[in-house]
Amino acid sequence: MSRPGTDEAISRAHREEWARVVASLARRFGDLDIAEESAAEAFATAVERWPADGIPPNPGAWLTTTANRKAIDRLRRESRRDDKQKEAHAMYAVEAPQPAGAVDDDRLRLIFTCCHPALAMETRVALTLRLVGGLTVPEIARAFLVQESTMGQRITRAKAKIRAARIPYRVPPAADLPVRVSGVLTVLFLVFNEGYLASGPDSDPLRADLTAEAIRLARLTRALLPDDGEVAGLLALMLLTEARHGARVSPGGELVTLEEQDRGAWDAALIAEGHGIVRERLASGVAPGRFQILAAINAVHTSAREAGQTDWSQVVALYDQLVRLDPSPVVALNRAVAVAELDGPEVGLALVGRLQDALAGYHALHATRADLLRRLGRRDEARAAYGRAIELAGNRAEVTYLTRRRDELARRPGAESR
């Protein structure tokens, strides 16, 4: 096979099989360092051998077998240097059976391990993005706006803490799930977001592998906790967002905003499923949490046949509920966007202005401000705001969109499209 064909097969295998291989090794060897490094070595071996030997019929099985061999070779080497008896036992010991549960999935076990409450939330997210999402350390560092070396140290310390504290590689018992699940939901949401709009300039603008994996794990989590409203809300939010995937980037590689998307390209089945979950939660009579409100907001958007039919008063009312639960600047920014649609860009701009200090390094604030200034005819200020948004944005499809918007303002007045 040609080198480009092999490269594509390896890239696809990395997207589809990385988490499965790491999770399988973590379960067998009980060490995240061994799991990650052996998986990486297996993919490096594929880069060397597949161009010559051909792509195996089952790439995932080939990678898992190769990674297991790499791990065993490593343990053999270490057993000669270190405590031979101890390492040999670890290498050949029969894995203790796990108690039966509602779900038996290696990757879900890995999520719960990465999301142990002993770890700080930002560390849980970073570790999950690395081990489950397969993101590189530079990609994760960009998402967190920190230096690559800093992020590498965080991930290394997190794995060491899991090993030293003997944090078990399993889905917790039913009694512990409610306490643990909120952290898992937050991490799954952030993994989904990285796929929805990838933060790195060198990655695909949309990472369908990450959004699909986050949805799959959210479904499994719902099977564990079928009556948990926030688990259901997160799943509905993901489904309603993923439904728009096919319309979010133009053939030319430019981000397409919600109001400009071809709604006929949305996935009707995902929308129907998401709407069904939202209605089910509303019928429960239980006060909604953050994810349920976000799902309801997306249900309003996906109910409108055209952008002009969006019920912005309902969207603002939902954001009013959300801001009471989550008074973060990002939620306030999203509410300001909705208010601008309902009450006009000048009102929205005043709300955005209150957030400039808190969100000075957040590209979406500057993009929102630029759009509102453009709508008010304040072209020079809008161009400057677009420029700042472009400097801060990492997603190349978004940069392409923002650049076009900025450049339109250099033309004669009225030449730009809304």
Automatic annotation (TrEMBL):
PANTHER family named among the record's database cross-references: BLL6612 PROTEIN, BLL6612 PROTEIN-RELATED
Q: What is the lineage of its organism?
A: Bacteria, Bacillati, Actinomycetota, Actinomycetes, Micrococcales
| Name the record gives this protein | Sigma factor-like helix-turn-helix DNA-binding protein
Organism of derivation = Terrabacter terrae
Q: Gene3D superfamilies, per this entry?
A: 1.10.1740.10, Tetratricopeptide repeat domain, Winged helix-like DNA-binding domain superfamily/Winged helix DNA-binding domain
Taking every annotated instance into account, which residue ranges of this chain make up the domain DUF6596?
180-280
Domain (RNA polymerase sigma-70 region): residue spans on this chain = 18-81
Q: Which family does it belong to?
A: Belongs to the sigma-70 factor family. ECF subfamily.
Q: What are the entry keywords?
A: Sigma factor, Transcription, Transcription regulation
Q: Where is the RNA polymerase sigma factor 70 region 4 type domain?
A: 111-162
> Where does the source fall among the domains of life?
Bacteria
